[in-house]
Amino acid sequence: MNLSSLVIPVLLAGVAVYGLGKRVDVYAALTHGAEEGLSVLLRIVPALVGLLTAVSMFRASGAMEWLSGLCAPALDLLGIPPETAPLMLVRPVSGNGALAVASDLMASHGPDSYVGRVAAVMLGSTETTFYTIAVYFGSAGITKTRHTVPAALAADLTGFAAAALAVRLFFGR
Amino acid sequence: MEMAWVWTGMVTLSLVFGLVSGNLDAVANAALEGARSAIELSLAMAGVLCLWSGVMEIMNACGLSAGLARLFRPVLRRLLPNACKDPETLAAVSANVSANLLGLGNAATPLGIRAARRMAKGCGGVASDELCRLVVLNTASIQLIPATIASVRAAAGCETPFDILPAVWLASVLSVTAGLLAAWLLSHGRAGR
Q1: Is B186–A63 a contact, with Cβ atoms under 8 angstroms apart?
Q2: What is the pLDDT of residues B113-160, one digit of tens each?
């Protein structure tokens, strides 16, 4: 038996039992959350249509390969697979764009391939940096952001290299 | 507006590459195929995404996020000592962190903004070290269960979409540490000048 086959049923049952013990209407909460999930999905569908169209064209034209080749020497140094170069370029700017690029990588390399896993971990360990900075500082009325952008980008770059490292560590190549 | 540039750049480069390499047929097909696959992907990930959003909502309703918030107060007091002297800012920051951990982005952002606004009071538009730290913390992902990614993996035919969790946690911890370290180094480097 796979350990991760245990995690999902145990988590579902555990959360339900714990919630019911606290007299929470777990079913209402579940459906309310699912509704929220649906509204998240509705918001990303239009963006996915636009972005997957562009990503798919980009790959078919050979431009993706060219871009990966361009970044390969620097990425090799950090142990990052060059196929993920487009993902790293889009990630700080657009969350849905990154989702589109990553899903394209998973579809073309397979979700359980080295590249597919690295793409997923990269997506999970970084954020839409520029969007976040703009929202936070914009609403707080900050114009001098000082060292925030370089520090946040250092975190992103570390996240990308660490994603490749972690996948090699847990799954091998 | 950045995305307008990215999108136009990608589509234009695709056209140029397609013309040069002579596989314009493939590019044309790929455009239609891409649009179609966007809807397929959305449908394929809808179920898993909704299920996990529901589970997160139950955890939230059970008071798990409040528990997480309490758990993180000592760490936050160290990270943002001045901001945490104000109890209301501390409450907003710890709620922001626990919403981030549960992957409730919609809930995390307004809480983080509330904290940022309080921290920015009377600073004349210049970000303090602590405010930079709060923003860096929010630009680095600290999500415990990345439900959207798991649903994309499931949509791509993966049977164990959650098996990447340990790798995600490790990469997240390293990335957050690097961000905070870089912020500290940069602020001290400049103060010394």
Answers
A1: no
A2: 999 999 998 888 899 999 999 999 999 888 888 888 999 999 999 988
Question: Do the Cβ atoms of A132 and B34 come within 8 Å?
Answer: no
For residue B126, the SS3 value is: strand
Residue-range definition of the domain harbouring residue B162: 50-191
Tell me if B90 is assigned to some domain: yes
Q: How many CB atoms lie within 10 A of CB B144?
A: 17
Domain count, chain B: 1
Q: What is the mean pLDDT of residues B22-49?
A: 91
Residue B122, in any domain of the structure: yes
- B175 and A158 within 8 Å at the Cβ level: the answer is yes
pLDDT greater than 50 at residue B193: no
Residue B94 falls inside a structural domain: yes
State ipTM: 0.86
Cα atoms found within 13 Å of the Cα of residue A12, Cβ hemisphere only = 12
Mutate to test the interface with B, among A12, A24, A40, A53 (most CBs of B within 10 A): A53
Mean of pLDDT values over B43-72: 86
Q: Which of residues 50-109 of A touch B (CB under 8 A)?
A: 50-63, 66, 90, 93-94, 97, 99-100, 102-103, 106-107
Does A149 touch chain B if contact means CB atoms closer than 8 Å?
Answer: no
Output the CA–CA distances (angstroms, integers) from residue B87 to A50, B73, B92, B119, B157, in the order listed: 44, 11, 9, 12, 47
Residue B18 covered by a domain: no
CB distance B30 to A49 below 8 Å? no
